[in-house]
């Protein structure tokens, strides 16, 4: 794989044989390299083929703003979900998860924590995804030295659910709303 444009030490742009642009990420994958040089493909974590200019800008902005460590963590989470739990995920989950983890760690360092209003529903109706979220919290603490609350396991699970649904998080929201409505009905019946 040849470099067409170096973005930083950890990212570069190349093109496929049919001239499709690929954004390539990997720790030190472009370090000491020049345009038109081959790279060590074993250093590559992820390649992205942006579909639109908006996707391209989002990915490039993230590469410039987010340390490579968060891309590595997101890759390990996605790999675990796909390998251990046989969850098929879209590429967009990788981007969303990287961004979320970086933001969560930054917030935690400032002692700012978000409450996940759907934690019970996620834990109950998506136990596989929630367990990946719990595993991810341990990984993040190991890699970043920052403990995150269980609510974050729920947020990570939502990203996985979204990736499973092919970015149809509205479907997840509809399911959660239906479940809440059904539970309220059951509670009302119990009161009578």
The tally of helices reads: 7
* Coarse morphology: globular
Distance between the termini: 69 Å
Strand order of the largest sheet: 1-2-3-4
What's the rounded overall pLDDT mean?
A: 86
Number of strands: 4
H/E element order: EEEEHHHHHHH
**Biggest sheet, open or closed, and with what strands and sense?**
4 strands, antiparallel
How much β-strand is present in the residues? 5-15%
Helix/strand/pairing category: alpha+beta
Provide keyphrases for this structure:
192 residues, alpha+beta, 4-stranded antiparallel β-sheet, 7 helices, 9% strand
Overview of this protein structure:
With about 190 residues, this protein is an alpha+beta fold. It is built from 7 helices and 4 strands, in the order ββββααααααα. The protein has helices spanning about 55-65, 70-85, 90-110, 120-125, 125-145, 150-165, 170-190, and strands spanning about 5-10, 10-15, 20-25, 45-50. Strands 1-2-3-4 form a 4-stranded antiparallel beta sheet. Helix 2 (about 70-85) packs across helix 3 (about 90-110), helix 3 (about 90-110) runs antiparallel to helix 6 (about 150-165) and helix 5 (about 125-145) crosses helix 6. It is globular and about 60 Å long. The N and C termini lie far apart (about 70 Å). The mean pLDDT is about 85.
């Amino acid at each position: 794989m040849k470099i067409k444009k170096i973005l930083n030490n950890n990212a570069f742009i190349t093109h496929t044989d049919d001239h499709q642009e690929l954004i390539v990420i990997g720790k030190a994958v472009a370090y000491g390299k020049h345009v038109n040089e081959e790279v060590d493909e074993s250093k590559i974590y992820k390649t992205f083929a942006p579909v639109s200019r908006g996707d391209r800008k989002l990915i490039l902005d993230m590469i410039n703003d987010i340390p490579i460590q968060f891309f590595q963590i997101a890759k390990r989470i996605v790999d675990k979900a796909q390998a251990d739990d046989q969850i098929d995920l879209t590429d967009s989950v990788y981007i969303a998860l990287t961004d979320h983890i970086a933001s969560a760690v930054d917030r935690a360092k400032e002692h700012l924590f978000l409450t996940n209003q759907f934690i019970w529903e996620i834990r109950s109706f998506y136990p596989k995804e929630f367990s990946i979220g719990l595993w991810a919290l341990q990984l993040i603490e190991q890699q970043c030295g920052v403990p995150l609350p269980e609510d974050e396991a729920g947020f990570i699970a939502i990203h996985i659910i979204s990736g499973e649904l092919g970015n149809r998080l509205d479907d997840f929201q509809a399911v959660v709303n239906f479940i809440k409505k059904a539970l309220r009905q059951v509670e009302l019946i119990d009161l009578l």
